[in-house]
Amino acid sequence: MRTHVRDATYAIVDVETTGFSREHDGVVEVACVLVRRGIRFRAFSTLVNPGRPIPPRATEVHGIADADVADAPPLAEVAPTLRRLCMGAIVVAHNAGFDRGFLPMLAGRPGLCTLRLARHLLPELRSHANQALRETLGIALPAGAEAHRAFSDVSVTASILEILLNRYLTAGHPPDTEALLALAASRVRYPRFPFGRYRHIPLREVPSGYLAWMLRASDPPFDADVRTTVIAELARRRVSAFPPATAASPLPRLPRLADGASPARTVLPAPDRRAS
Question: At what angle do helices 208-216 and 224-240 cross, to 10 degrees?
Fold first, then answer.
């Protein structure tokens, strides 16, 4: 039996880290909020000792320094609590690939990325980053909270999720969680790129040469959605270069063959290999 999106339990998670590498960096703070039918009924947040120094550049983002986590538990001690909180819930995160990459104890649980869902349901926005959505959608931070801290970020994501669920249902999408997760996981086609030389420029105005370069890059720093967008736009341009036939300019008719006749074959000359 399928679950209505309003009846599901969502476990919204967020982490603050020492950096971006799952192999070389660690978690310094984690938070989780449980939501069902728009009601937040349980919350958990704790600092985490990453077992390594926190670089100054990371502290500049979230404000967490080595002294703050010196007596905090390691992630291994926090893991059982997170597993219990997320049991039977859909695990939600904004840019879920990043957060869940640092939370291996949640592997295998159904997940929803609000960043991807926002790209599908709010394509008109220029940015779908967590804080950009907060400002655009008029979401307030919790009292006394600061942006880029785990608990404030999960609170913002919870509000974003509520708005997206309303938009999802209003748009007439199937109301079950299976369809919701499928939409969020499906490829996105951007109306404009959120980065780079042609950032926020309508896709139709981006030169074909730039699009082709994005596909030729030997190690492209582009996610699957960007590549899907590029491929679809280049295909659209190829098709539009050949307008459909009209009554005024119909396609040429091919001569009919007599019964049993075979079409004539055109023999092309062999290529001149001296030029290669």
Answer: 140
Give the integer Cα–Cα distance in Å for 53 and 24.
Answer: 11
Euclidean distance between CA atoms 68 and 237, whole angstroms = 55
| Beta pairing, strands 111-113 & 9-17 | unpaired
**CB distance 48 to 28 below 8 Å:** yes
Position 138 pLDDT exceeds 70: yes
Question: What is the distance between the alpha carbons of residues 9 and 3, in angstroms, rounded to a whole number?
Answer: 10
Measured distance CA(53)–CA(38) in Å, rounded = 38
- Angstrom distance (rounded) from CA 215 to CA 57: 32
Residues 6+ apart with CB under 8 A from 27: 15, 16, 17, 48, 50, 75, 102, 103
d(CA 182, CA 210): 31
The β-bridge partners of 17 are: 27
In this prediction the pTM is 0.79
pLDDT exceeds cutoff 90 at 144: no
Q: What does the pLDDT read at residue 124?
A: 86
Query: What strands, in cross-sheet order, belong to the sheet with 39-47?
Result: 39-47, 27-36, 9-17, 90-93, 111-113
Give whole-number Cα distances, 220 to 139, 233, 234, in Å: 34, 18, 17
Query: C-alpha distances in angstroms, 222 versus 186, 225, 248?
Result: 16, 8, 44
All residues at 6 or more sequence positions from 32 whose CB lies less than 8 Å from its CB, including other chains: 11, 12, 13, 43, 44, 45, 82, 85, 86, 154
Q: Which residues contact 211 (CB under 8 A, 6 or more apart)?
A: 230, 233, 234
Residue 254 CB neighbour total at 10 angstroms = 7
Largest distance between two CA atoms of the chain: 91
